[in-house]
Design brief:
Keywords: Membrane, Transmembrane, Transmembrane helix. 30% of the residues are buried. The chain has one domain. By secondary structure, the protein is an all-alpha fold. The chain is elongated, with a radius of gyration of 15 Å.
Length: 131
């Protein structure tokens, strides 16, 4: 029973941290897309990386309260989870914008939502362990 309670707490915290990282992601994306004129896939990638840089320390310290020092293995696993997420996000964006002609601003939100569950599973059980 405690294990399920921990999963719910971690998921709730993950959603909060994800919300913060998503806001950073989306603001960088919009700034690059609208103000700078960067191509939407490049803008999405830059925004995504900004969100990951915000999310890692928050997930480590608050979501999972992982006490160990940051190791190369932990960073590598986190990078793999979010690389998969980035590729999935780019695929969703390309599909929605290229095939369905959905505005990139809307397609980006769909892509971010699409990867939330895989990110949680990857960070909870692979990056930070099942603590």
């Amino acid at each position: 029973m405690q294990r399920y309670r921990d999963i719910y707490i971690h998921f709730f915290r993950f959603i909060i941290v994800g919300g913060i990282a998503t806001i950073v992601n989306y603001l960088v994306f919009l700034e690059l897309l609208d103000s700078v004129g960067v191509q939407y896939l490049i803008a999405a990638s830059c925004g995504f990386l900004a969100g990951v840089m915000v999310g890692f320390p928050l997930n480590k310290m608050w979501t999972y309260q992982h006490a160990s020092t940051i190791s190369w293995g932990m960073l590598s696993r986190y990078g793999c989870v979010y690389l998969f997420s980035l590729i999935a996000n780019i695929c969703v964006l390309s599909f929605l914008v290229g095939i369905f002609r959905i505005d990139a601003r809307i397609a980006s939100i769909v892509g971010i939502g699409f990867t939330t569950v895989t990110n949680f599973i990857g960070t909870k059980f692979w990056v930070f362990g099942s603590k």
